[in-house]
Amino acid sequence: MGSVTVIGSYNVGLFLKGSRIPVVGETVIGDSFFEGGGGKGSNQALAAAKMLADVSFIGRVGGDKYGEDALSLYREFGVLPDNIIRDDSTHSGISVIFIDSEGRNSIMVVPGANFKMSRDDLDEREELLKRSDLVGFQLENQLDFVLYGIRKCHALGTRVLLDPAPAAELPEDIYRCISYIKPNEFEASVLSGIEVKDAESAKAAGRWFLDRGVKTAIITLGEQGAVMAEDSGTSFFPAPKVSAADTTGAGDIFSGTLMACIADGCELSKAVEIASAAAALSVTKPGVVSAIPEYDEVMDLYNTLRGE
Prior knowledge:
The protein has helices at 40-50, 65-77, 119-123, 126-131, 143-156, 185-192, 199-211, 250-263, 268-282, 295-305; strands at 3-7, 11-17, 32-38, 54-62, 84-87, 93-99, 105-110, 134-137, 160-162, 180-181, 216-220, 225-230, 233-238. The protein is of the alpha/beta class and 308 residues long.
């Protein structure tokens, strides 16, 4: 399999599930609580590892219990923790996730150690970046740090995938440094200024990214599916039909699976279909890390959908 390096965030997730998500000023009695490792970068690295990619993760955790838990989690998934920095000056990132009875969620993140990532952290790992088949970024670290990393990888000749979440305005020149961009409909709307609500508007947003220098844009539309835009044209991929229990992290599992497939040389339309299968399987279970499907499960669903 190919080599994937993910640069990003680790947040422990505190999940509170109830009949509905409270509005401002309201207290709601929930039904259940659990915690688990999360953060967009971490989730994507673990999902790529489940798809048998050779995965490295560059990130920071705090000098706390959650930092220890993170290192144990990476070892369990076969992601060597060599490039994860322990920072005793702060806490690990924390996410609080409210989930309603229909699987919808609302999330607040306190970045902690994630916002202490520095350019030196990347410069010291230049050889790793250079030999990676693909490097993945998100926007849960400081924006200046992410932009520096994307430009550095581009200068090294390494392909970059950006999952632009949470959505933030990006400088115009950064797009030509991105091989693959994978926003959801909300993020695509924020970045492009095009209201993305269906396949046709997603195709328009995809072309907007291409016009600015991105090689391939893949826009996810939740249960509607995904759109891919390339210079050769646009394609729509319907989502597998499943019963959703919890949609938290589905986008991360899509991105991690997509990265593993691309790094392995998979044809892009097949990579999107496999990533869609992985994301669909993940929403049938609660949590994020605990919901990452196994390689065989993903490929079984992919083959079933194709009638094989």
